Amino acid sequence: MGIYNSKTIRKIRKKQKVKRSFLRDLFFPTRVTVGEEEVWLETTANGNQVAPIVSPIEDGRVVKEKAISTNAITAPSISPKYVLTPRDAFKRDAGDSLNDGKSASLRMATRVGKILGNQENQITNKEELFAGQFLSEGKITSSSGDHPYEIDYKMSNKGTLGVGETWDVNTIKALDDLDGFIVEAEKYGTKVGAVVMDGKASSAFVNNPQTLEYLDNRRLEAIESKQKDLAPGVAYIGFYKKRSVHIYQYDRTLEENGAIKPIIPEGTIVGGPTYGEVLYAPVVYFKDGGKDIHEEIRHSRVSISKNGKEKSISTESRPVFQPSDMSAYFSWKVV
Fold it and tell me: Among 140, 178, 235, 331, which residue has the fewest nearby CB atoms (within 10 Å)?
């Protein structure tokens, strides 16, 4: 039956309505494949070539003493897997009638479609987590695969506002702070395109007396009609005309190592250029009489157990994030 071969699996996956990745799509909108497992990053800061710091992770700890400075990044492997058994042909989803009229083969096809959709969502969630790590910390931690590591992209424009300087203090001018963050980020010639805050930072910002004054004077505009179909957890705050920057609130959480964490840390504001890239290394599977190397953003495959009673469905992706000039990104805890 065609539903069991890798070619059909890929077609089904492409038809899924995938969960959108807000930060990835906003700050890293370009997604391209590359031909090597080691992805060469062209990383700059202040317009000058720099190399990220790559540290291995051993026993759950980032080992700084073994860190190296390199532009050649071995792409991580994100590869969720599901094993189909004969039982899957007879599983019914919640609410399905025992007499729904579906054949076992149709029920299996529907099951496969949902599995592929779930795998796509898992990979997309991981990429979104990577984007959040990069924007808030300037680092990405890849804990999967045979050689887990941390990439430190050397973000310098980050910090925490001091006591009495946070945005929930009425005498503080939050918009002046935001203006300063953007000016510092753009001084080497790279444009900041968007700013994202978590709910706590957003509440302090929009209720700050200076922000309220700007809203009243129409210098900060909410352009709701142009911000449709936003991703889960996203609210559009407005357009800061003085700097031509869109401002968003983002309150989504994801599970990481068994703990639920916000993608943007509490009380934090991040910003940067909106033309970074995600580079995808090839997925390699060795098999007789078929293609071994797959230069794809996602590659789905199916394999059969020796006894013919199990079929494994997996989807793999190997992303590496290529930012714009690092001097143009910022992350500040403001509340």
Answer: 235
